[in-house]
Here is the input.
Amino acid sequence: MKHQIEDFGQKIGGSRKELFVKKGLYAKDIEEMTPLEQEEFVKRDIIFPKPKYEEMVKKGMDRFIVYLHKEIRLCIYPNPKLVIRYGSRDEISRNECLTYYIETIHKIMAALDNLKDYSGLQDFKNFIQTELFIEKSDKKYYLSVGGYITVKEKIFSILSQESIAEMLVKMKKKFFCIPKDRIAEETIKQRYQVNEYDGLTFRYFEEDHNSKNPKVYIIMSFSNGKSFYYINRNEFKKEALWNVGNYFVIDKYGRTICMVGDKASCQKFIQEKVAEMEQKLLLEKENNSSESKRKKRFVPAQLSKVTREGEELLNGRSITGDMMMKAFKFRAGEFGEWLSDNDRQYSLNYSFEAFYDLAKIMNIDLENISLNGQLAIAFGARGRGSALAHYETGRRVINLTKMRGAGSLCHEWAHALDHMLAKFFCEDSIHLATEIDGHEKNKLPASMLRVIDALRYKPDSRELTKYYLDSERFDTLAGKTTHGYWRSRPEMFARAFENYIDDKLIAMNLRNDYLCGHSQSYYQVVGDNVIYAFPIDKEREFINSCFDELILDLKKEGFFKEMAGNPKERVKKIMNYVPAIKIRERQKGLNGSKNTEQISFF
Here is the structure.
């Protein structure tokens, strides 16, 4: 699809739609990655994505062989083990470690492609011993360099009789690749077994005939031993029932006899047990379903319209990518392939106004908005699942989704700020400042440390804030996939910052929904209580004062510059050469210099 409005600036690269989706990840790719991208992408799950095991079984592969594929894949470390030296080898560089990791995984994948049935087990065992291990003179096997970086040592014995027996038990217990509608039947099949009494393999045995309540067993004989199954129901103890040709059901877990009779009655017993299990599983499913409804991933509602209240800035003109770079010094801009020209134009205009308002209320130079030329912006190009927006540390780019991203710009800019503070003060381009611990943390400004502390603790105490406690509660309400997301320091920092900016907007009689329209949407009502995942009341005031100190310090440190002159005049100069193209209606506010704009998405 050809667009009139194209990407601008440098090529950002590395978007999810481009990286390794079709071609896979190979050793040659690491040369083009930043260290942070190497950390993000050189992983087992990207190099060797989880196969569709159910489809492999459906295509006829033995269920245990498929399970073996799964267990072998799990022997690969999720991330490479970075080593400096191994054995007598010279120093191993980071890129060499990554190369070993990627190439070894590809070798394992190729070997698994040839492991389609039991006849391939010996070849795979040979592969393990020759490619992942080295046989030394003492006849012992040691991991090779690639093996040590890539796999757990237990892979060496994965095909031993003990390991295979253990995997068979696990496979059955997990109902691996068993269709859901057969789990009840499989559960009963694992526990109960119908047998024909023959008087040889199975023998009736009564212990202590003279006892009023003698112990009666059925003894099952096999090649290397015997098993005893106790008959605890009096009606089944009568020896007359145990005629050759009769059938009985054993409970393998309880080692008891639970039914004796003809074949039909024993099969009926099994069918009744299957029906009971199906009912039990159905009830469990309903309970889990109601639980999942209570614990659902929290996503702020899409804004029905975007409102901006403030001085008229664009005067009906349309922003271009060049203007974004000239005004704010953005490194690059990118649009999603399916974003129409109209959507692209709205995105440029909204974000230009939002960044201008952000610079004005922080009283920083317009160029500081791009964090001094390091930041890129993307619209609908690099989406991640259901996220409204996200910041990519590897490429230093903010992405806003087509419609749902409106309202999240300030939140993601806060993540970018968090990242650049770590790089500026700690020379750490991988982590965010809020993630840094230990002695490195002391390189951050004292005001930044106070902000981080204020998110979790009340002033001059170690008592937890309501903000932290409610964020922690949010994690329990929002489902198991969040893994501490809401109470993490980076997220608490970003939510607090967008509320700080929202308060500044209100104080200056301004409003910009595109910038921080979601700032106060992070709450849930539980019974008579409201759980807030953003600062409120006195805590909010204190955190805001800490942010004030941080912004002042960042100006003193040269991270930000004070806004000089009239920024609106600068915007006018940038826009001078662009013809006026009116793309939407604007209404003059009642107070002259103010302008109120409401654009509906529907």
